[in-house]
Amino acid sequence: PSPSSSTPGAEQKEKQYRAHQGFGDHHAGVTGSHTYFYADEAKCDQHMETFLRCIDASSGSSEDGFSAIKLTALARPQFLVRFSEVLVKWRRFFLQMAAEQGQAGRAVLEMKLEVEKLQEALANLGIVTKAESQEWFVGESLGTSSTVDLLDWNNLFDRRTKMSKPLLIPNRQTGQLEPLLSRFGEEEDLQMKRVLQRMDVLAKRAMEKGVRLMVDAEQSYFQPAISRLTVETQRRFNRNRAVIFNTYQCYLREAYSNVTGDVELSRREGWHFGAKLVRGAYMEQERERAAQMGYEDPINPTYEKTNEMYHRCLDYVLEEIKHRRKASVMVASHNEDTVKFTLRRMMELGIHPSEKKVCFGQLLGMCDQITFPLGQAGFPVYKYVPYGPVNEVLPYLSRRAQENRGFMQRVNRERDLLWKEVKRRLLAGNLFS
Questions:
Q1: CATH topology of 13-18+33-77+193-393 equal to that of 88-179?
Q2: At the top level of CATH, which class does the domain 88-179 belong to?
Q3: 86 versus 31: which is more confidently predicted?
């Protein structure tokens, strides 16, 4: 769980969501001069049209295909950082209330606020009167419950932010009350509607074409907003099957709580959970930014810890598939041990490849020694095809090549074995047997 607002770590975490001169740059260092800001909404609409063409291409090239979309192409990154900041403040407020009720050591989903105590605390802070806070729970499914957990708390967010009276929460550093949405005005509300409309257009086209949408993960200071927008789309389109997939980066310390929270939400609301699990792509940039801005590094300390996190998250989703069959996962990994782990757990849990609840993904041109045997064994397996301007795609591919340089030795070994087998067959006169 994240540190409560009464701990020093929370102050560091708040810095993570502040704008920074290079925060929107995906391709350069944090201090790079090129920024990823879009001049206007029309640019985002152009990107949506590109994604629509990609959905059409995916539909024509494979059955049950995927098309990846980036929310930083559909919404201004400044908006995503601001929205992330608001969501993190709201979550931290919950953790503060939980700490005051003596629950600081619990896992996030096990924290349950007693409504009576919560209402008293809100009144004592001068945020709302007890009568006003009682209205918060009217008409909610939690209205009959005596406790509120983080998912209930998040569901309250939309209704509270639409109230004419601004919602005030305590600022930890000053001790003063300040508006939750102090940096979130009419322009941000409009951008929120526009990005959800774009996602709606893409999701509808994907359903028509029999394609699933994967929402790519971004840097951690964008990710709370991206995950929230993705969940909103999953609620609408994942009623009968997993059409919208969220991406979880397992190098993040919070990966497991993010996965388990979203799975639990899907259970409560009755939609199909869809996840792509990756290790993560922005480690150096995240660490440099954390050092420059003085907040805690959000990345797991070692590669081994990231592996543990990946397998822990994956196992949780596989168990969900076993018990409810209302979840799907793409194992997006070039790691042979992870693939073997997945195959073993599928067998142990009785998840058959033909169910297509578990699929695999590798980059085009990388790790074919994993992709082809999986496909030949009957597992759904996909090649991820990056596209875009050469000067932007090449740095992306070079980072992937760097990440996978350890596996290149295995490719060379497999190539040598294949060449030996070709020569053996030529000498034996049975080339095609």
A1: no
A2: mainly alpha
A3: 86
Whether residue 122 has pLDDT greater than 50? yes
Q: Residue type for 110, please?
A: E
8 Å CB contact between 278 and 309? no
Structure tokens at 43: 């640019």
> Based on C-alpha coordinates, what's the Rg of the chain?
23
d(CA 236, CA 409): 45
Distance of alpha carbon 195 from alpha carbon 200, whole angstroms: 8
Q: Where are the domains of the chain?
A: 13-18+33-77+193-393, 88-179, 394-432
Q: Are 314 and 341 in contact (CB under 8 A)?
A: yes
For 284, the enclosing helix (H) or strand (E) is helix 283-293
Q: Which two tokens stand for residue 77?
A: 């990154």
Residues 6+ apart with CB under 8 A from 40: none
Cα dihedral across residues 419, 421, 425, 430: positive or negative: negative
- Classified as helix, coil or strand, 334 is coil
The closest of 128, 257, 216 to 180, measured between CA atoms, is 128
Between these two residues, 162 and 378, which has the higher pLDDT value? Answer: 378
pLDDT tens for residues 410-423? 566 666 766 777 77
Tell me, rounded to whole angstroms, the distance of Cα 76 from its chain centroid.
18
Which residues lie below 8 Å from residue 137, measured CB to CB, with a gap of 6+?
A: 115, 143
> 47 Cβ partners below 8 Å, 6+ apart?
73, 74
The confidence score (pLDDT) of residue 8 equals 42
Q: What is the pLDDT of residues 139-149, one digit of tens each?
A: 555 545 688 88
Note whether 98 and 4 are within 8 A (CB).
yes
* Mean local confidence (pLDDT), 157-185: 67
3-state helix, strand, coil in the chain (%, to 5): 55, 10, 30
DSSP 365: T
CA distances from 420 to 407, 416, 426 (A): 20, 6, 10
Residue carrying structure tokens 């009720």: 101
Distance CA 66, CA 216 (A): 12
DSSP per residue over 193-226, as a string? HHHHHHHHHHHHHHHHHT-EEEE----TTTHHHH
Total count of residues recorded for the chain: 433
Contact at 8 Å (CB) between 198 and 276?
no
> Residue 18, Cβ neighbours under 10 Å: how many?
13
Architecture of the CATH domain 13-18+33-77+193-393: Alpha-Beta Barrel (3.20)
